[in-house]
Amino acid sequence: MRKQSVIVPEELAVTTLMAVVADPAAHHSALLPPRSSAFGVRCARYKRFLSQLDMGSGGGGGARISAWVDSMRASSPTHVKAAAMLSASFAASHDEDYNKWVKQHPSALTVFEDIVAASKGKQIVMFLDYDGTLSPIVDDPDRAFISNAMRETVRDVARHFPTAIVSGRRRDKVFSFVRLRELYYAGSHGMDIKGPTKRTKHTKAKTKAVMFQPATEFLPMIDEVYKALMEKTKLIPGSRVENNTFSLSVHFRCVDEKAWSSLAELVRSVLKRYPKLRLTLGRKVLEIRPSIKWDKGKALEFLLASLGLADSGNVFPVYIGDDRTDEDAFRVLHGRRQGLGILVSGVIRETSACCSLRQPAEVQEFLRWLVEWKRSASLPRRTEARKK
Ligand SMILES: O=P(O)(O)OC[C@H]1O[C@H](O[C@H]2O[C@H](CO)[C@@H](O)[C@H](O)[C@H]2O)[C@H](O)[C@@H](O)[C@@H]1O
């Protein structure tokens, strides 16, 4: 039995401001593979899809920023509103909606048997986001540690399937948390890719050389903006700028809501001079990155190609992520009609993922099940081989 859910004010505030500025392009979410699905539950079709917030700093960017600031103000719940949201009637009606949503995006644990049936005969490739997926969201980005148990689970996963971590963070920072050399790492939202430095049965010698950085020309610009933001954000208590090498994160998790608009204005004023950079919104974080056509979805495609699986019909990529930036990868899977996107969320979210998991603990459970399934599936084969 799944736990009852209550939407938290933070999620509501961010979701509301996203709704105001997002691209209302229609999009359908469907279970993959959509036609030959072996899954018992079909995903619903969404009326609208909130594409990733993209506030280019040039041209109309200013107007869109104001919309963002306005919606931020409008959507920031006061304490009274927050208390009302947590009232019994709010919780009950939200639970009803949430249960409907979960029917459309079933728990990957509930439909586990269907997932492995759909992957039968195919090479599973695992793509894992880091923050909010492998580690819980915490106030201090430098302390978003992965647990030892999760690390061991990911290590086991990598023994059985080619595995990549795809993160908005700096590649070396993610590596310093995860410390598994047998994985692929795609940092800076996929703009900094490196293959495993430890050989596994999935990583042939040549994959060691995998290295791809499509945005190197932006490094001086990113560095300049980092310095400017570090200086200016000193004025906003609780704000924090993180240098992710090919992108920057301006955190507002610890900023008083009353100062959000000042922070947004300040970021806008810096970015005005850099039309080649764009701004997107994550979980209480503004992400600044080059406006090149490269994202986590492209990184997924690049990694499949590096594994020699780009055009294979026999590949089953599984992408697990919690962030809006992960939607790019979910969309790629949707477009390829291949594999499975799993959104990590305990609240209703518009997504192109087919399945859901509520939190990192459930991600770990799912990964463990996958390893167990793979081990037991290869047992008879191993026994046969020993007999010969
Ligand atoms: O792609 P991801 O691996 O999910 O990285 C996205 C951003 O994650 C981090 O920020 C988020 O997690 C922090 C720690 O829990 C939290 O304090 C923050 O509010 C979240 O937005 C990371 O610090 C960013 O650089 C990443 O871009």
Automatic annotation (TrEMBL):
One of its GO terms (molecular function) is trehalose-phosphatase activity. Removes the phosphate from trehalose 6-phosphate to produce free trehalose. Gene3D superfamilies: HAD superfamily/HAD-like (3.40.50.1000), Trehalose-6-phosphate phosphatase related protein, domain 2 (3.30.70.1020). Signal peptide: none annotated. It catalyses: alpha,alpha-trehalose 6-phosphate + H2O = alpha,alpha-trehalose + phosphate. Its cofactor is a divalent metal cation. Keywords: Hydrolase. It comes from Ensete ventricosum (Abyssinian banana). Pathway: Glycan biosynthesis; trehalose biosynthesis. The keyword Ligase does not apply. GO terms for biological process: trehalose biosynthetic process. Belongs to the trehalose phosphatase family. Its EC number is 3.1.3.12. The keyword Endoplasmic reticulum does not apply. This is Trehalose 6-phosphate phosphatase. InterPro entries: HAD-like_sf, HAD-SF_hydro_IIB, HAD_sf, OTSB-like, Trehalose_PPase.
